[in-house]
């Protein structure tokens, strides 16, 4: 009897084996059939591009937005000149469906917020093109899980494990260190975007997810919860931040030289820093795993006494491990220009 | 009497020749695209799909033709025809060549509906329905205000009510854009407002077909009264036309088709403004000829523009940009040349 059962099971397995697909339940609760060997992946948005690039650069079929010359310098040569497809988000997208089909991807990956809009878009594109489309949760705290999950999907579990361990260690060091820092010792930070630096993120804004993760106080949280918003210089003067993070060198220069900004504590103390942005933003855009390196940078910047960070060697090892690029000292200096205190 | 028969023959000939031209254009457009396919294989896929004998036909080619290209070609024709006929109707009703289908706030209302649904993370279907309803509601509000104000020129009050309500709706759109998530929602809203057919599926085309046909019905049935309406309210009433009811029926029809097309394509400007002018230059102001000419020309123009949108660059070019770039210079020339195509 047991032999018969074993035979039946073996027979059933033999039936299943030749079908080159396995079911995968994505972050939207959709069950998608994934081919056994994924060799070409199309990414629906910038965070997905970063994720697929760090896990399996050889499987990336193209970019959502063409990398600039500056960005290309910090990317592997093999991916620098991949074609650009645009955003693949349905009616709100710029990707051309025929160009997508012509690229013959086995899988479409989107990383980011998962909600009903994105679930229905994924279903729609999948139905239209017949290419499996998976949604992955992109929240920063889940970075290690995301790496492992997508690594399994792409058949690069070993590499994914290595990167996930790095992320876990980094996040653990961060949280252990933060636990010892009382609220009073945490700096008040203002993050300024736009040419005037008067665009910032409110409490809970995805642009400032990482600032919240490193436990700093976002001064603009006083203005409420939400996304990006414009504020007035008067408000910034009222908040009187200890540190200003500038999304562009242009704003950093304005804050340092403009009389209107001169009386803010951060400016008086010379604590105006530019957020590094190459090859993918360290601080916010895109909101992908590229922000992991931003954690080391912010640890060194915000809590120099509590964390013992060797930023230069951390940066080199992150680029080597994740982006598979060897940084020269000159490149390192250009990356961190304006982003660290002058020695 | 003989003149009338001649006229009927003229209209018949216009419709037959125009339809043949449109079909030829559609077939040409079917042969163009980012996925390289020879005209022979396009025909082969089309014929095999129609006969149901799809053995030996490349499944990707089938997807390209049946799920991507054909729905776009059909949607382009349908939407172009809808916007142009609505434009011709509005221009005649308001006796003003500068009027486009947006005059009573249908586009603004549809935009607000779509932007709201994107803001609340709704599935695509709800975004489309919300947009459709938004367009109808905005025009309904304008019409209610316009008719509530007595003792003034009814046409002028309608236009002014449209301007006022359009401004309020525009403010609402801006407010929601400010509150939206800049990574996920804002790009979707922006591209939606620019208009695109990239994600159009067969289901989308079928979903707007009933509203478009029902909306066209009053325009076709009332084509003679439309001519009378262009003489002005008093003259029309002397000729025994109930201007209030006729105007209400024509506005409802034109609004219905505009709202339907906007709900799947987003905001596509200029077609409703420029195509009726071209049609008027070709066939004169008689609405019995102007309506079919506008429908055919609008369909053809939109087809050409959408073919450009999906084939000239690696990524999609929003339709709003192309129709304006092509349409605006023509419109200016029309204004400058001072040709009397109007009455």
TrEMBL record, chain A:
SUPFAM superfamilies: Helical backbone' metal receptor. The keyword Aminoacyl-tRNA synthetase does not apply. Residues 1-21 form the signal peptide. Coiled coil: none annotated. One of its GO terms (biological process) is cellular response to iron ion. Pfam families: Peripla_BP_2 (PF01497). Residues 40-306 form the Fe/B12 periplasmic-binding domain. CDD domains: HemV-2. The keyword Secreted does not apply. InterPro entries: ABC_Transporter_SBP, ABC_transptr_periplasmic_BD. Keywords: Signal. This is Iron complex transport system substrate-binding protein.
Automatic annotation (TrEMBL), chain B:
It is a multi-pass membrane protein. The chain crosses the membrane at residues 12-32, 73-90, 102-120, 126-146, 158-180, 200-222, 254-275, 287-305, 317-336. Keywords: Cell membrane, Membrane, Transmembrane, Transmembrane helix, Transport. It holds the Pfam family FecCD. One of its GO terms (molecular function) is transmembrane transporter activity. One of its GO terms (biological process) is siderophore-iron import into cell. One of its GO terms (cellular component) is plasma membrane. It is found in: Cell membrane. Belongs to the binding-protein-dependent transport system permease family. FecCD subfamily. PANTHER family: FERRIC ENTEROBACTIN TRANSPORT SYSTEM PERMEASE PROTEIN, MOLYBDATE IMPORT SYSTEM PERMEASE PROTEIN MOLB. This is Iron complex transport system permease protein. It comes from Neorhizobium alkalisoli.
């Amino acid at each position: 009897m047991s032999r018969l059962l074993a035979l039946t099971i073996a027979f059933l397995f033999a039936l299943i084996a030749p079908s080159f697909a396995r079911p995968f339940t994505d972050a939207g609760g959709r069950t998608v059939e994934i081919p056994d060997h994924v060799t070409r992946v199309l990414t629906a948005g910038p965070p997905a591009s970063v994720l697929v690039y760090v896990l399996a650069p050889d499987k990336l079929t193209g970019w959502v937005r063409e990398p600039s010359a500056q960005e290309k310098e910090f990317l592997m040569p093999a991916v620098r000149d991949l074609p650009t497809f645009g955003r693949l988000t349905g009616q709100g997208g710029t990707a051309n469906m025929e160009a997508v089909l012509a690229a013959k991807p086995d899988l479409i990956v989107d990383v980011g917020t998962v909600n009903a809009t994105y679930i229905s878009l994924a279903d729609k594109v999948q139905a239209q093109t017949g290419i499996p489309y998976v949604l992955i949760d992109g929240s920063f705290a889940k970075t290690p899980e995301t790496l492992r999950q997508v690594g399994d999907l792409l058949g690069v579990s070993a590499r994914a494990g290595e990167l996930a361990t790095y992320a876990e260690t980094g996040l653990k060091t961060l949280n252990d260190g933060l636990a010892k820092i009382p609220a009073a010792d945490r700096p008040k930070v203002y993050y300024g975007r736009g040419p005037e630096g008067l665009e910032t993120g409110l409490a809970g804004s995805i642009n400032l997810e990482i600032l919240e993760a490193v436990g700093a106080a976002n001064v603009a949280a006083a203005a409420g919860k939400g996304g990006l918003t414009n504020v007035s210089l008067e408000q910034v003067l009222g908040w009187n931040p200890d540190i200003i993070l500038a999304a562009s060198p242009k704003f950093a220069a304005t804050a340092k030289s403009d009389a209107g900004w001169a009386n803010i504590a951060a400016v008086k103390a010379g604590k105006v820093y530019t957020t590094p942005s190459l090859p993918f933003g360290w601080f916010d855009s895109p909101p992908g795993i590229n922000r992991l390196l931003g954690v080391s940078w912010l640890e060194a910047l915000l809590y120099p006494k509590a964390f013992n960070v060797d930023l230069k060697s951390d940066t080199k090892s992150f680029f080597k491990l994740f982006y598979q690029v060897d940084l020269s000292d000159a490149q390192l200096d250009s990356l961190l220009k304006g982003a660290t205190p002058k020695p | 009497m003989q003149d009338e028969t001649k006229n009927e023959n003229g209209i018949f000939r216009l419709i037959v020749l125009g339809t043949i031209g449109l079909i030829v254009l559609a077939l040409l457009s079917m042969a163009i695209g980012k996925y390289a396919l020879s005209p022979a294989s396009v025909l082969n896929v089309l014929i095999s799909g129609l006969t149901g004998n799809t053995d030996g036909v490349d499944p990707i080619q089938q997807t390209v033709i049946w799920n991507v290209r054909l729905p776009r070609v059909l949607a382009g024709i349908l939407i172009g025809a809808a916007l142009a006929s609505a434009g011709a109707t509005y221009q005649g009703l308001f006796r003003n060549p500068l009027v486009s289908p947006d005059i009573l706030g249908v586009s603004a209302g549809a935009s607000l509906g779509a932007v709201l649904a994107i803001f609340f993370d709704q599935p695509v279907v709800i975004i489309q329905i919300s947009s459709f309803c938004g367009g109808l509601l905005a025009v309904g509000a304008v019409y209610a205000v316009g008719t509530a104000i007595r003792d003034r020129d009814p046409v002028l009050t309608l236009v002014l009510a449209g301007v006022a309500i359009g401004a309020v709706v525009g403010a609402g759109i801006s407010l929601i854009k400010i509150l939206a998530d800049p990574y996920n929602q804002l790009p979707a809203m922006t591209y939606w407002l620019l208009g695109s057919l990239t994600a159009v599926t067969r289901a989308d085309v079928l979903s707007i077909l009933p509203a478009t046909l029902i909306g066209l019905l009053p325009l076709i049935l009332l084509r003679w009264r439309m001519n009378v309406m262009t003489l002005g309210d008093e003259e029309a009433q002397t000729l025994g036309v109930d201007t209030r009811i006729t105007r209400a029926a024509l506005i409802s029809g034109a609004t219905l088709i505009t709202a339907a097309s906007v709900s799947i394509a987003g905001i596509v400007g200029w077609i409703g403004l420029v195509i009726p002018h071209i049609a008027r230059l070709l066939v004169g102001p008689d609405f019995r000829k102007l309506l079919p000419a506008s429908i055919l020309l609008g369909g053809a123009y939109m087809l050409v523009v959408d073919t450009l949108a999906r084939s000239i660059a690696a990524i999609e070019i929003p339709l709003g940009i192309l129709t304006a770039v092509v349409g605006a210079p023509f419109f200016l020339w029309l204004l400058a040349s001072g040709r009397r195509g109007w009455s």
